[in-house]
Amino acid sequence: MADPLETRDRILEATLELISEKGYLGATTREIAHQAGVSELTIFRKFGKKERLFEEVLKTYTFLPRLKDLIPAVENLPVQEALETIGIRFLRTLKERKCFVRIMLSEMNTYPEKVRKAYSQTIEEMVQTLRGYLIRLQAAGQLRDVPLDTAAVFFLRILFTTFMNAEILNQRDLSPAEMESTVSQLVGIFLHGVLAEETAG
Amino acid sequence: MADPLETRDRILEATLELISEKGYLGATTREIAHQAGVSELTIFRKFGKKERLFEEVLKTYTFLPRLKDLIPAVENLPVQEALETIGIRFLRTLKERKCFVRIMLSEMNTYPEKVRKAYSQTIEEMVQTLRGYLIRLQAAGQLRDVPLDTAAVFFLRILFTTFMNAEILNQRDLSPAEMESTVSQLVGIFLHGVLAEETAG
DNA sequence: CTGATATGTAAGCACTTACTTACATTAGCA
DNA sequence: TGCTAATGTAAGTAAGTGCTTACATATCAG
Lengths: 201, 201
Prior knowledge:
Two copies of one chain form a homodimer.
Chain A: H1 4-26, H2 29-36, H3 40-47, H4 50-61, H5 67-74, H6 79-96, H7 98-107, H8 112-120, H9 123-139, H10 148-169, H11 176-191
Chain A binds a DNA duplex through residues 1-4, 7, 28-30, 38-42, 44-45, 48-50.
């Protein structure tokens, strides 16, 4: 009948959505098949077993950190603007990949190895990107002597939890306006603890 | 036979542990009964249905924020020490209630209303406590003009994610030494963005 | 001892789940 | 046209799942 690749994609997308809504155990193969507009048997012919489906979803929807591409465009901006741009982009990426993030949070307990792999390919790489940027700032004398791994991690973690709290726990849309105000407040607090000129003690 | 209250407690504790390990759907009433050293029937006699068990666990293990009791003892310390004490206490509380936190994270998607209730009785109240302390500092002229809701939220969220990342995602023990160094780094970055004397621009 | 209360054992019910088998259909390619 | 690959329908299996029923036992207060 149809294009086998297209069929496969529809199955994976249905799986992503349903697992993110109901968890791995709560998402049944019957319902996935129905939502994908496909026979349940097709799923088993293509993926063998349900667990494989799950792994394939994690592989497929691991979002490559587009933060890296952003850095060059930002490198010439004033620090505050640069960090705000990075922060907004990070929040937007999380929003776009909401289903994926939900799965990571839900299944982190029950399938830590599988989730950890997906995690290190996404958020951890974003941390490294931000850290690289901060290191260059520090080398240029713009930052005082703080541990930059920690600083980068703190910065992104605040945004991650902001997203998690609003969109997942409270199931409330994180509006662009709210994103901007959160990020600018964060950058404010973050920067004035990091800028060299303000150390003095 | 035994004390009915004691039996009830054993069931609730087994439920807490098993749901935190395997999720609500993954924890079967048979296994809970076995781990509690109790007949499966006893569970249904005491709680009626599985969902009720879940709700009762959330109610029972909601940890009352002992942060509040800490504030008076801390009010006379220098800000840095005070925040470090608060931070360490928060991390320790999370560690003690690890099972409960895991459940909150896992089931946040699938049972948001139930989890949200437990959440607001714990972490949100801690935020308010910390915010109260910061407001007093600000009134005393020790902090510059930053939004203190946001600041308090940021502070605790960083610690929450630190805990989550280490203990849940990486299933690694967060040692007292690591807790201390994380908290002191956090307070360093946090404070120098908040202290009035360093504003200047 | 009596009766109530808390628990246990055993069997099972109605239902769902992941997964399978057997057979039919459709589309495209040679 | 006929072959192959991708899918579908239908029926079913074995193993759970939450939850129930019927009946027995043990403890303890009166």
